[in-house]
Design goal:
531 residues, globular, 73% helix, 21 helices, mainly alpha, two-stranded antiparallel ribbon
Length: 531
């Protein structure tokens, strides 16, 4: 075996080894811990790029047998286009959040760096695993690390929101375990590729129990994805977390979306009409709920949290259509919206540094009731306002995030939405039904609502009725935001190549025959039965 043959396991081993090194480092060496964290995360990005290039240049996914046992008995990792893309997206988002945290948050408490790396390990493992049991293991590693990150550093608001987050996700984990147990009791296997061959051959009398297990499992992942009505915890928790943690949590909701897509296509070949209808209706309901909440939001943190719901709901609804072309466009949109959400979460903290709660309350009061001081009416203000360079930079970044999340042309958010609309409107020659028109209506409505919500928030931030203090912003805090926005611009410029990759990824996951055959045909190294 060559070194490249071990590339699939690198996104899991790298953060695990980094967390161990950080924990064994001397407690009074914060710079050493930060250096290990940054180095490991940069290497994670490099590995993600190499993994994407590897799977894009070969015929079929890369399969890695842990323990060198033959499928379906082996613990294995599988990297195809969609898994490699999401591993790279996780690493890029994590690097931006980590660089931002170096300015102040890494020193606010203990164990930030090992928790950060363990979170990366859990997310990457969830994207790469090839069996349900280890999906549960990596799911729990991700959640356990996220519990510590949500509470970091402990304040009353974070503890209150974090306890809700902990209880809800423990309940989701319980459902996950029950669902896995029910599926195993019927099929006798937890290997995802093997499930694809076992499920169609099941006796009809066994199907109800299988469907029950799949439904319980789906609820667990819908909770993590933030689907309505299971999303009541998300906005509050994300808004209470510190900015770099909220930014990386933007990818955590996509773990639920990815797993629903993967298992639906593998276990039911995308043909279970009721499951597709549930995803479609749940996604549409989530988009509608997120749209109303975006219009009602008065705080930037909650505005960002409800934008996460819009992103997840849009992708879920499109997945529910079962169209490979639409799913490919949704993957493009998922990458763009996740990068923009990460940038916006980081921007929220910088923009709010110069604000006070009293000023916010007065701004909302003036907007609602039109109140103003008599002195403001007696003498008109001078025309034009001198905007310091910091505020100008923050304002431009805010406009970029707003346009991306609202889906305004010609940015990547618009291109993703346009491709989804073209697909659901019969771009492949199919007739447009009620589902297609519902998606079109809600996508347009959510984009318009986002534009209103972000415009209102921007005016309060950068054209306040009361004087505000210009925040102190460091280069290491602005650079990650610029990096994420630059990547969105790169997606816009290279949209043809990026869309071709996401369409190929959607075709792989929608037609998993090659995935199943390659996994089950993989022999242990040396050609034996394993061991």
């Amino acid at each position: 075996m060559t070194l490249l043959d071990h590339l699939v396991i690198a996104p899991i081993l790298l953060p695990l080894l980094a967390a161990i090194l950080i924990l064994t480092a001397y407690e009074r060496t914060p710079h050493l811990k930060a250096s290990i964290n940054v180095t490991a995360t940069v290497l994670q990005v490099v590995v993600g790029v190499l993994l994407v290039m590897q799977v894009d240049g070969q015929n079929g996914p890369s399969v890695y047998l842990l323990g060198n046992w033959a499928p379906p008995f082996s613990i294995l990792l599988v990297a195809d286009r969609i898994a490699a893309l999401l591993v790279l997206l996780t690493a890029v988002l994590a690097l931006a959040a980590l660089l931002f945290s170096l300015a102040r948050w890494q020193r606010a408490g203990t164990h930030f760096h090992p928790l950060f790396q363990l979170f990366l390990m859990g997310v990457s493992g969830a994207f790469l695993t090839g069996d349900l049991f280890n999906l549960f293991v990596f799911f729990e590693v991700m959640l356990a690390a996220s519990y510590g990150l949500v509470f970091y550093p402990a304040t009353e608001a974070r503890v209150r929101a974090g306890l809700h987050y902990l209880v809800i996700n423990l309940f989701a984990s319980l459902l996950f375990l029950i669902g896995v147990a029910l599926i195993y009791s019927v099929t006798g296997t937890l290997n995802m590729a093997h499930l694809a061959t076992v499920v169609p051959a099941l006796d009809p009398a066994q199907k109800p129990l299988l469907h029950a297990g799949a439904a319980v499992l789906a609820v667990a992942f819908l909770i993590k994805a933030g689907a309505w009505p299971l999303c009541f915890w998300l906005a509050t928790t994300y808004a209470a977390a510190i900015a770099p943690v909220a930014a990386v949590l933007a990818i955590a909701s996509k773990v639920g979306v990815y797993t629903l897509l993967r298992l639906w296509q593998l276990m039911f070949d995308g043909n279970e009409a009721f499951a597709g209808l549930c995803l479609l209706l749940g996604g549409l309901a989530t988009v509608l709920f997120g749209t109303l909440c975006v219009l009602a939001s008065q705080e930037l943190g909650r505005l960002a949290g409800y934008s996460v719901l819009l992103s997840s709901g849009t992708v879920l609804a499109v997945i529910g259509t079962g169209s490979s072309t639409a799913i490919g466009a949704a993957l493009f949109y998922l990458v763009s919206s996740t990068l923009a959400l990460g940038a916006f979460w980081l921007l929220v903290e910088l923009a709010e540094r110069g604000r006070s709660a009293v000023a916010d309350l007065l701004a909302v009061t003036q907007e609602a009731f039109g109140t103003a001081e008599e002195s403001d009416l007696e003498e008109p203000e001078p025309v034009g306002v001198i905007i310091p360079a910091t505020m100008a930079l923050l304002g431009l970044s805010f406009i970029g995030c707003a346009l991306l999340l609202a889906g305004m042309p010609p940015l990547s958010g618009f291109l993703g939405k346009y491709a989804m609309l073209a697909a659901v409107l019969g771009g492949d020659g199919s007739a447009v039904g009620v589902a297609g028109w519902s998606i079109v209506a809600l996508l347009l409505l959510s984009g318009f609502a986002s534009l209103i919500g972000f415009s209102r928030a921007g005016m309060r931030l950068f054209w306040p009725a009361l004087p505000r203090t210009v925040p102190t912003v460091r280069v290491i805090e602005m650079a990650p935001i610029g990096l994420l926005l630059a990547l969105c611009l790169a997606m816009m410029v290279g949209a043809d190549r990026m869309m071709a990759f996401t369409q190929a990824a959607a075709a792989e996951v929608s037609q998993p025959v090659q995935y199943v055959e390659q996994v089950l045909a993989t022999l242990p190294y040396g050609g034996g039965e394993g061991g």
